[in-house]
Structures are given as structure tokens and as C-alpha cells.
Write a structure and sequence with these properties.
Order of helices and strands of chain A: EEEEEEEEEEE
Helix content of chain B: under 10%
Largest interface: A-B, 28 and 25 residues
Oligomer: heterodimer
Shape of chain B: globular
Number of strands of chain A: 11
Order of helices and strands of chain B: EEEEEEEEEEE
Shape of chain A: globular
Low-confidence stretches of chain A: none
Structural class of chain B: mainly beta
Number of helices of chain B: 0
Strand content of chain B: over 45%
Number of helices of chain A: 0
Distance between the termini of chain A: 37 Å
Distance between the termini of chain B: 39 Å
Strand content of chain A: over 45%
Mean pLDDT of chain A: 95
Radius of gyration of chain A: 13 Å
Chain lengths: ~110, ~110
Amino acid sequence: KAGVTQTPRYLIKTRGQQVTLSCSPISGHRSVSWYQQTPGQGLQFLFEYFSETQRNKGNFPGRFSGRQFSNSRSEMNVSTLELGDSALYLCASTEGPANTEAFFGQGTRLTVV
Amino acid sequence: QQQVKQSPQSLIVQKGGISIINCAYENTAFDYFPWYQQFPGKGPALLIAIRPDVSEKKEGRFTISFNKSAKQFSLHIMDSQPGDSATYFCAASKGGATNKLIFGTGTLLAVQP
């Protein structure tokens, strides 16, 4: 069974640009959550999707958005990039809607210059 | 009330020793407590998880001890090996329709040969 696939693995963007990150969950998993990981703030929850619906959103500005498709694949978008958005963005895949085991992808390393 | 406090920040253990990492929480609505292991350049990997209806769970060399009244839980790694050297995160999740995880700040474990 394939794991969680995140693409691309690495990205370098310029301030003011926008970026789209992709996540393919484990086959059969219907819930996808996104996290931002930085040395200073640790692992912080961005948002969660289940059956194409956003169920939870973390405390991030509106520049951060996401969506989930009917095949459970998810994308997150960051617009008007700032230097502080440089981070490892992680996607977690879970089978069910609540408190089930979450499996993480390897992440997308975003660097904003 | 949303925080999960983790200690120590770093830990050095001799090969064959016991590594102990502690976490504390405030929100009594939390009802799922996983531990994750993360190696550099990788996403977090689920190690072991516990729910409040049991006080201990063991999987191989890894044991979670859970104290509901004290709102604390800990990870014990028995017979620690150099290959266990990684960053460990505790996390907590509330019951209901969510997979949102609140993470501790992480513990960098170094097992010396």
C-alpha cells in the first residue's frame, strides 16, 4: 500500500509569489490534514478536510487556503508569500473522520527568498 | 487550554538505557494521545497511541504511560538504540468529528553507542 505522497519535495519562491502544494493520501483514506513545521513554532495545524469539506482551520491568515477533491487528493495554496512562510509543509492522511491514526507524508520544503 | 507541554527539550541516553519523555495537557476534552518519531528530512511517523480508558500501552520497546487524573502521559523507550536517535513529538486530539492534532514542542533524543 503506497504511503502519503506530497509534491513537490522542494520549492524555492520569491516574496509576493503564490504556491500550490499537493498531497495524495493513502488509498481509501478520506481525511487529509495539513501542518506547518518550523524550528520556532514547531508543528502547527493548518486545516483539515473530510469528503471534500473543510472541517477545521488553524490560526493562519487567509493567504493560506486549501481544498480536497473527490478522489481525496488535496492541495493547499499560499498567496502573497512572505519570508516567514518558509517551512516544511506536511500532509497527514487518515482513514476516518475522527481520532484515527494519522500518517504523514515526507513534506514539501518551501523556501521563500 | 489547547497546549500540550513536552519535556525535556533534549535527551542524551546511553545505548541500552531507558529514554523517558513527558507530556502534559490541560484540555480534558482530549481523548487520543499519539506519539510520533521524526528523522531529519522525513515526515513524522506514528509510533504508538493511547486513549484515556487505559493507563498503559506497550508495543515492542515503546510504552505509553497515561495518568488521567494528572493529565500527563509519557513515552518510555526501553533498551534504547542509536537508531532511536530522532525527534519525538507527543500530540493530543479532541473527541468528535476531527483528526486535528495538537503537538508538543518535541524532544531531540540522542542515544550514544
